[in-house]
């Protein structure tokens, strides 16, 4: 195993995670009551020192605000500056603060929707008074529109943009895995997943979030039970293949999935603008034959190796849009919009993190958007990508049987199967990425120890 990658697993629980920092910083800053306040009356010329955006590692030293050491505040006419410690300042524009007031007149406490009329805020609005209190930053707005706003310190730290102090959470909990995961793959039982208190569902979806996949053992080998299991997460996403699918190798749909042929590692729906988020499948029976092992590959793991060993190839896959189609049924002709397609590797435009792998070489359309000099580099890049995807280190092969379902994050995990003989009956479902993320977010609220998160207060970090 290469240095820098998570070796899996001695036991999954001991696998390294990127960093626990931001969770503790912003979830433990409960403010004790205190009478001490620091008052800053306008006008003031005390401008904060120009601090550069802090490197993320430095921000780890930022301690939660405690009452006997309230942040120092100062204003310069356009912004309010908050000194968290002697080195760390956050600056907030006046108009930004007024727009983000979350008192009940400005933000509906139930619907969590903005009520303040952003466009009635004078562009030159400035506080008449700012105050550092135990509860947070208190801002009084001038008498033409008299109003007082109170912003909790933890909320200001979380949402600090000048400089950004929080570590984005999207990739923090991802555990990249190789074929070694076979020793102890993430699994929940059917009873856990179906239990009414939702703790098992939380465990299940947390595994999916961390590993991009999870097995479910002890599932009754029926389409009904499997459909019910799928619906624990959210609406099943209906596609041209139906809603909940239950099929054999009879070419009932014009797609290789409905044959006995081997399928290389791929993600589904590369021909959709919005590929499905999760895919659950369950082999209900396999009679009169053999073969048909399931192949799982962590696309994020393989991408991390590609990035390290072949950065040029990585960049080609990150910037080249790939057209695709689903055209095996005369009644349907799917292409992503725009039809030039999307790159194999998509990144968060703000953080630059890898967020999605789209790869199905079988469904790729004509590559007619390449410049002459890009053709050979494109084929070189996908040749390297294919080689890494199909290496013994990447490929996790598992023989599924009735009773064990598997769910994969279709934006991260590639799946495939070996050829088989005989009759296989497979059932399963797609679940939209937004339904899955919404359910996971709700379960995190439900089992959070942070009151602002658990009660979905107007100061929840998600809003
Ligand atoms: Zn308000």
From TrEMBL:
Q: List each copy of the TauD/TfdA-like domain by range.
A: 181-430
Q: Which domain of life is it from?
A: Eukaryota
Keywords linked to the UniProt accession = Carnitine biosynthesis, Dioxygenase, Iron, Metal-binding, Oxidoreductase
Described purpose of this protein according to its UniProt entry:
Converts trimethyllysine (TML) into hydroxytrimethyllysine (HTML).
Name the InterPro entries on file: AlphaKG_dependent_hydroxylases, GBBH-like_N, GBBH-like_N_sf, TauD-like_sf, TauD/TfdA-like, Trimethyllysine_dOase
Q: Name one GO biological process term.
A: carnitine biosynthetic process
E.C. no: 1.14.11.8
Its pathway is: Amine and polyamine biosynthesis; carnitine biosynthesis
The opening ranks of the lineage are: Eukaryota, Fungi, Dikarya, Basidiomycota, Agaricomycotina
Pfam family of the protein (one): GBBH-like_N
The UniProt catalytic activity note for this protein reads:
N(6),N(6),N(6)-trimethyl-L-lysine + 2-oxoglutarate + O2 = (3S)-3-hydroxy-N(6),N(6),N(6)-trimethyl-L-lysine + succinate + CO2
Q: Which residues form the Gamma-butyrobetaine hydroxylase-like N-terminal domain?
A: 74-156
| Cofactor requirements of the protein | Fe(2+); L-ascorbate
Enzyme class, UniProt record, top EC level: oxidoreductase
The family this protein is said to belong to: Belongs to the gamma-BBH/TMLD family.
Q: Where is this region: Disordered?
A: 40-60
GO MF terms held by the record: iron ion binding; trimethyllysine dioxygenase activity
Query: Listed GO cellular component terms?
Result: mitochondrion
Protein's recorded name = trimethyllysine dioxygenase
């Amino acid at each position: 195993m290469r240095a820098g990658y998570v070796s899996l697993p001695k036991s999954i629980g001991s696998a390294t995670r990127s960093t626990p920092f931001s969770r503790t910083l912003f979830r433990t800053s409960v403010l004790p009551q205190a009478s001490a306040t620091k008052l800053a009356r306008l006008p003031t010329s005390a401008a904060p020192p120009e601090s550069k955006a802090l490197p993320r590692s430095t921000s780890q030293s930022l301690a939660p605000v405690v009452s006997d050491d309230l942040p120092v505040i100062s204003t310069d006419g356009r912004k309010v500056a908050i000194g968290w410690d002697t080195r760390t300042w956050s600056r907030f524009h006046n108009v930004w603060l007024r727009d983000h007031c979350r008192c009940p007149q400005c933000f509906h406490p139930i619907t969590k929707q903005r009520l303040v009329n952003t466009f009635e805020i004078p562009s030159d609005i400035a506080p008449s008074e700012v105050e550092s209190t135990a509860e947070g930053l208190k801002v009084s707005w001038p008498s033409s529109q008299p109003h007082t706003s109170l912003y909790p310190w933890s909320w200001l730290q979380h949402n600090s943009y000048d400089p950004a102090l929080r570590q984005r959470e999207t990739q923090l909990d991802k555990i990249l895995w190789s074929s070694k995961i076979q020793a102890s793959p993430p699994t929940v039982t059917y009873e856990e997943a179906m239990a009414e208190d939702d703790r098992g569902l939380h465990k299940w979806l947390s595994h999916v979030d961390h590993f991009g996949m999870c097995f479910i053992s002890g599932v009754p080998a029926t389409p009904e039970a499997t459909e019910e299991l799928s619906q624990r997460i959210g609406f099943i996403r209906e596609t041209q293949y139906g809603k909940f699918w239950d099929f054999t190798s009879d070419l009932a749909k014009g797609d290789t999935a409905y044959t006995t042929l081997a399928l290389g590692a791929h993600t589904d729906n590369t021909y959709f603008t919005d590929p499905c988020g999760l895919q659950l499948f369950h082999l209900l029976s396999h009679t009169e034959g053999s073969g048909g092992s399931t192949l799982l590959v962590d696309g994020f793991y393989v991408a991390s190796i590609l990035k390290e060993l072949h950065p040029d190839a990585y960049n080609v896959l990150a910037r080249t849009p790939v057209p695709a189609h689903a055209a095996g049924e005369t009644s349907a002709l799917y292409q992503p919009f725009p039809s030039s397609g999307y790159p194999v590797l998509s990144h968060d435009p703000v953080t630059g993190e890898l967020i999605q792998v789209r790869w199905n070489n079988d469904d790729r359309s004509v590559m007619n958007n390449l410049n002459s000099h890009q053709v050979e580099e494109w084929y070189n890049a996908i040749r390297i990508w294919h080689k890494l995807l199909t290496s013994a280190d990447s490929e996790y092969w598992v023989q599924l049987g009735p009773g064990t379902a598997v769910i994969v994050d279709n934006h991260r995990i590639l799946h495939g199967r070996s050829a088989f003989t005989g009759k296989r009956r497979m059932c399963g479902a797609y679940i939209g990425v937004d339904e899955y993320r919404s359910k996971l977010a709700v379960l995190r609220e439900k089992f959070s120890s942070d009151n602002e998160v658990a009660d979905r207060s107007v100061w929840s970090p998600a809003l």
